[in-house]
Specification:
Elements (H helix, E strand, L loop, with lengths): L2 H47 L20 E5 L20 E7 L9 E4 L2 E4 L5 E7 L7 E5 L2 E9 L6 E8 L4 E3 L8
Parallel strand pairs: 1-9
Antiparallel strand pairs: 1-6, 2-5, 2-7, 3-4, 7-8
């Protein structure tokens, strides 16, 4: 072989190797671009499928356990007694039912008369309150966390007439507790 022929063959082999390397780089770049497009489209679809605000990485708070509640329903029984205006029947006694956490005892504030006895109710703040405009047709309904509560009924315009009952709420259960007529 002549010295110039060897050089030309070497140049052809080098040019062919460079062309193969260029095609390989183009295939890799095309594959990376296609993968990036697929991942981007998947990210958009996930973002659209998940409702709510976007979160920053690491900012998601752990889920708190759901608080199960129990339900208490009942009537604020009409007040029939000495606090009612004589000679005037009272078919409806509107009032308010208030829920206080705790037990009726002898260790707190809020003393009220109940069936001729003095009772001391919890001095806790009210947990819930509802206005009753018609004792006969309107139930009170409270969803409360498990525990012991005192339901206090106060009548509008019936003087100091107040009634109460104590209930124990169990999660997932419904309790019917009418407030007694202690106006007699």
């Amino acid at each position: 072989m002549l010295p110039g022929q060897n050089m030309a063959a070497e140049q052809a082999v080098i040019a062919e190797a460079r062309a193969r390397a260029r095609r390989r780089r183009q295939k890799i770049a095309l594959a990376v671009t296609a993968a990036a497009a697929v991942l981007s489209a998947a990210g958009v679809l996930i973002a659209l499928a998940v409702p709510g605000k976007p979160h920053k990485a690491g900012a998601i708070a752990p889920a708190r356990p759901a608080i199960r509640t129990g339900t208490v329903t009942g009537h604020l029984t009409a007040c029939i007694g000495p606090y009612i205006t004589p000679g005037r029947p009272s078919p409806v006694d509107p009032g308010t039912v208030t829920v206080v956490r705790g037990r009726a005892s002898n260790s707190r504030q809020s003393i009220i008369a109940n069936s001729g006895q003095s009772s001391i109710l919890p001095g806790e703040p009210a947990v819930a309150r509802v206005r009753i405009s018609n004792n006969y047709h309107q139930l009170f309904r409270f969803s409360l966390p498990p525990g012991t509560y005192v339901l206090i009924g106060r009548y509008d315009g019936a003087g100091p007439a107040t009634t109460f009952t104590q209930v124990s709420v169990v999660a997932g259960k419904t309790l019917h507790a009418d407030l007694p007529d202690d106006c007699q």
